TrEMBL record:
One biological process term in Gene Ontology: response to stress
Family annotation (SMART domains): HTH_MARR
Protein name, as recorded: MarR family transcriptional regulator
Pfam family, one: MarR_2
UniProt source species: Streptomyces cupreus
Parts of the chain that traverse the membrane: none
Length: 141
């Protein structure tokens, strides 16, 4: 294990797995998963998005987006509406129940983050966040 723990990429992978497991357990009651949350979180930042935009921005396969949006519609958290720019296209928008769900689950997400980052002091947490943000923003898409 020593060689694996010397590999930063592996450590990031392990942290991502643990984070996903903890967050998915918070979502379990709702029947949703972390990928659904990502779609909802993105929709909360805009007035709606085309499915192809969701696919491109979140890095999910277009066919996966269709299923995720279907699930979110069934839960009442998102809906497809006609696009004002193109009647043939539909935009996905967050519903009021979707916003309420996000508020609740964001609190659970904060608890997960705090659990994962418990070994770090506040300054280390800020540094880690800044470094990860820089990698995500400046790295390959």
């Amino acid at each position: 294990m020593r060689e694996l723990h010397a590999d930063t990429g592996y450590l990031l992978y392990r942290l991502g797995l643990r984070s996903g497991q903890l967050f998915n357990s918070c979502l379990q009651e709702s029947g949703l998963r972390l990928r659904h949350y990502a779609v909802l979180r993105f929709l909360a930042t805009c007035e709606g998005a085309l499915q192809r935009e969701l696919s491109a921005r979140l890095g999910y396969d277009p066919s996966a987006i269709v299923g995720l949006v279907d699930d979110l519609e069934k839960a009442g958290f998102a809906e497809r509406r006609p696009s004002p720019d193109d009647r043939r296209s539909r935009i996905v928008v967050l519903t009021d129940p979707g916003r309420a769900f996000l508020r609740d689950i964001d609190e659970a997400g904060l608890r997960v983050t705090n659990e994962l980052l418990d070994p770090l002091d506040p300054a280390e947490r800020e540094t880690l966040h800044a470094l990860l943000l820089r990698i995500v923003q400046d790295g390959p898409t």
